[in-house]
Design brief:
Number of domains: 2
Oligomer: single chain
Number of helices: 9
CATH class of the largest domain: Alpha Beta
Strand content: 25-35%
Number of strands: 20
Largest sheet: 6 strands, mixed
Shape: elongated
CATH topology of the largest domain: Rossmann fold
Amino acid sequence: MTAIEAAPTPRRGEVAEYDIRLIGLTKRFEDVVAVDGISLDVERGRFFALLGPSGCGKTTTLRMIGGFEEPTAGRIELGGVDVGGLPPYRRDVNTVFQSYALFPHLSIFENVAFGLRRRGVRGDELRRRVGEGLELVGLAGLERRKPRQLSGGQQQRIALARALVNRPRVLLLDEPLGALDLKLRKEMQLELKRIQHEVGITFVHVTHDQEEAMTMADRIVIMNEGRIEQVGTPSELYESPRTSFVAGFLGVSNLLPGTVVGDDRVRLADGTEVHVPREALAGRSGAVQIGVRPEKLRLGGGEVNTLAGVVSESAYIGVSTQYIVDTPAGAVTVYVQNDRRGAEGAAPGDRLTLGWSPDCTFVVDVQEDS
């Protein structure tokens, strides 16, 4: 039995248990609506990411879950219990901040033990749980050091161990990797994912970094202007975005305007008809936008959907070469994998045909401001 016990996994056929339920949650700061009536269920043992641009409401949502901000309206349930009005220390959550918030005058042991001592844990039980917490984050043996003697990545791990030894129902992560350099940040992304899988505690992670969210999370909540745009797995959001905002925020998308002319066809602005999955249209009619990710496009024919154009720009970016192709339907970005040395490509001014499969096409509504 470890000090940090894994959360139970629901058995097949059981109703999913939710560690967090947000119901009509709203937060206003005077005339500004930071969070606008969102509802969300977070299943037990999941790694959730709240993703979106600055000012979208993700951090405010996290702070309301943790009890650091009071909702203007709506309800927050943790484990089925309404925690409205409860202060942070009475909620079964712990928070890891970007700033680490370690006590500089205390040893690493005492930093990790701080919350346990407040809960009355003493003696061998205290030493065992601190030791296992440090072992979990790969820092066993550093108990006597002070925070200033550790690197930024090690300090972040200590903050994580301090939060996890309390066995919270939910761990909240407020952009915890933001202060780290790129290499260490990528290492810590995988480390956090490993730790979450090992302990089975529900993690809710706030970030504005799309790659970070896709690397770490089981499910991603994309927020925009205080509302939830879409919730899904990384692959669902990337392959089948429901709005133009999601398509543009999560990676690069080619969005071309057109008109629905059949249950699986859209006519683009230049008159070209392209085939799309029936389920992608989802009963839409009239003006829409079709979307294709740059890596799904092929130079040359051989596909059901084709579009002719002229290369206007090319850029070698290591693993692939990026082309901008001007077509009568609009400018299109293409990524071509550099899978072998000396692979032939295209140059600015070349005329070519782009091809792609209908299965690689998604459809979203026309932006209101477009």
